[in-house]
Amino acid sequence: MKRFWSRLAVELGRRAGLVAAVGLILTGILGFGVTRLDFATSQDSYLNTDDQVYIDNVAYQDLFGGQAMLSVLVTEEGTDVADLMASTENQAVFADIADQIGGSGDTEGVPNVEAVVTPLTALQLSDTLIQRTPTGEAAADPTQSIAGGALAFAAGLGGEGPPELQEEAGTPEAEARTQDTLATAERLGAIPVEQRTFDNPDWIEFLLRDNQGEIRKALRPFFPDEETAQVVTRLGGNLDIEDEGAAAEAVTDIVDEATIGDDAPMEGLSASTTVGAPTLLSDINDYLKGGLLSLGAIAVGVMVIVLLLLFQVRWRLLPLAVILIGVTWAFGLAGYIGIPLSLVTISGLPVMLGVGIDYAIQMHARIEEEVIIDRVAHPIQESARKLGPALLVVTFDAVLAFVALKFARVPMIRDFGDLLIVGIIVICFTSIILPIALLGMREFRSPTKGRDFRSGALGKLTVFLGSLPKWTAVPFALISGLIFVGGVVVEGDIEIKADPIEWVNQDSETVQKIDAVQAQTGSSSDLGVYVQSDDVFEQSTVTYVHTLAGCALGSFPDEGDSPYTKANCQEDYIPEQFVEVDGEEQKALLTASSIVTTMSYILEIPGATPLPPRAADVQAAWEQAPPAIQAFTATEDGENLNLLFRTGYSSLSDGEEVVTAIRTDANPPEGTTAVPSGLAVVGVGLLENIESNRAQLTYYAIAFVGIFLMIRLRSLIRSVLSLVPVLIATGLASLVAFGLGLELSPMTAVGGPLVVAICTEFTSLILLRFVEERERGFAPQGAADVAAARTGRAFIVSALTGVVGVGVIATSSLPLLRDFGLIVALNVVVALLSALVILPPMLVWADQEGREWVSRRLVSEEDLARSRGGKGLDADVPEGGDPSGPGTDRTPAGQT
């Protein structure tokens, strides 16, 4: 191998021009691959294609569309939604919004929109149910209409159907239902038939309010309160992020222009806010495209300062140039291979800069060490022979640490592992080839003349940091083990920051809109339940959906003789769902919306039994509903039905509890399935995948690197010594997070393997340099001191650049990335300080005469004998002579 490295150094130096030309050509070719990088923020990045959640969600979106855009309209002070809807001008605006977004006649509508339901559309459905028969004809009298017939049957006043869907005659519940039905008939009769039109405010009032003067429950998804109306636009299903973002922007522009634009004709409106998950994802996608380069530019800028101030060598910016070429090659290859960029992989650029620049710094520093201190005849060859194999070792360390990411359950974390594996291999190659070629050419043409840097501040600092007495090794070993075990014990109790809104820039317009919508309506998202059966309009399915919605919302009475009570929900279905927000318990699900609940709520009367509607009434309601509501609620083949809940939570951990309850306790009848779906469920699936093996990824990385080092270094002890600083850093991070009650960023799932890669890179180089000095005849303490003095400059500079590479992520405007960068940077600092402070005394202790656990089998018996019995060197001398001048024999006393 030594001949290989020597030959490589000679040929690269002789053909530096050719190397540079080939490098430029490769940079151009691979650089083009950067243009092929894809930015992925769809569910494919979060879920595996064989996950049941992914399969269900794809099917759900194929049937009922994708994410929703919510337009929240707030009325002026002194007006309410009845006034808003009574204006014929406002009705025309809502109709125009529906036409522009959803398309109608000659109007094409916004591409990739599944359906749009305005408050006007919701009132039109109410009008149809009250004035139309099941066949769509005008009802001659109220009892012949869809709603009238349903009310009459439930009260036992006429009609055919299962008797269990009627009140028991003579009961208080039957009396309450009869009285309310008569009250409804009286209110309806007060409005002449010819005046039951949308230009009559009294008719709008009747459609909007029930007999108690409250907004009808079936309309609350579109009128959450007296001052708020909502337009719901469902985008197409399974869209890519670009199409979804374009559709979201178009919907926002149309609604804003129609409601709050300079020439907006809408009356009585004080505010209009349009926002949704597609907007949030589009913002993230835009950030990915610009944030990648921004983070990289910041990292490069700080690294320039570090190199200029601290790396006192000729051509001190060469390592940065080398790493920029390597990173370009790495991302180009990623583009050709098809590795996508996501929220996680965006951090790959600064991470690769931080991890990879160490290689170039080490090679550059070693070449100048051979020139200035050892003054060997062939410094380039000597550097290649001694450092090349070590760089390959640390490259394997990093690659194996990153291989651990391939075991993640989240696709984008696995993609991050692929990116780093490709990147670190390419960077190692460039960091060996380019410095050897360019510095070889430089030294041939203009040999370096510089002063001895061992007495410099960085060399002294490194010696000082590693100067603890050797007796501290055993306590440090015990303490590191205890810290690691303690971290493992508390790891499962550390909370993950589970609210997606907290992952993005809190000052962004989108987040401010989401907060405004949340404050106004109590909800900014929904949860879909996808019900399937051979016939969703069959009575058992209708009754089931009615019961599921009532149980989940807690709208049934506590007890009673009917099956529709909270007690029965607790036993056979799911109880009312609650979540804790800011220390207070609140409802998890606020309203339910489906064609079944529309009819259920018509029948819901205070004091009466909450009876389910007849299946025939539900089917008639769907058949006569506006096309947009049909698209929202069921499929034409009658095999799929959509039940939508407005959610009162945003945290994925809260959502996980609700989704789990529906999955496990919803108890659908035989032949029917009820599957929670939609973006809320995708988020829950992402959280479950992250939590499933987040900590294990770190343990895998430690195990893979440990096994490799044990094989490569031919010793379990040497492997363990290399990992001690890693164990301290990972264990301490968990203990601190647990002790302070911190919520960690979900991206900390990739933090552990990063710390392992960066730290073992340093510990392996320190250990191998210690062994090299022992081979030269130094006693253990002398070897540690000499290694520290000679490599201190390179280690301190590369440590700082490594921390910068990871730490610069903390400057991101996304809290998800910012918190990750801060925590990982602190872990890396702890690990590197541990490597510089704790590892040297442990090496000295472990390699004392009689043990020699570090050097044995790596250093020949003859070389070890030179340092035994107090005969080892205790002062550094050049490789080719002593400090008095070049060429003096530095063979230790007693050796010939």
TrEMBL record:
- Is the Cell inner membrane keyword given for this protein? no
Q: Where is the SSD domain?
A: 320-441, 719-845
The record's region (Disordered) falls at 863-896
UniProt KW keywords: Cell membrane, Membrane, Transmembrane, Transmembrane helix
Entry coiled-coil feature ranges: none
Q: Which GO terms describe its cellular component?
A: plasma membrane
Q: What is its main location?
A: membrane
Q: Where is the composition biased (Basic and acidic residues)?
A: 863-874
Q: InterPro entries, alphabetically? A: MMPL_dom, Mycobact_MmpL, SSD
Q: Which residues cross the membrane?
A: 291-310, 317-337, 387-407, 419-440, 461-490, 720-742, 754-771, 792-814, 820-846
Bilayer topology term:
Multi-pass membrane protein
State one Pfam family annotation: MMPL
- Gene3D superfamilies, A to Z: Multidrug efflux transporter AcrB transmembrane domain
Q: Where in the cell is it found?
A: Cell membrane
PANTHER family in the cross-refs = MEMBRANE PROTEIN MJ1562-RELATED, MEMBRANE PROTEIN YDFJ
Write down what this protein is called.
Answer: MMPL family transporter
Q: Source taxonomy lineage?
A: Bacteria, Bacillati, Actinomycetota, Acidimicrobiia, Acidimicrobiales
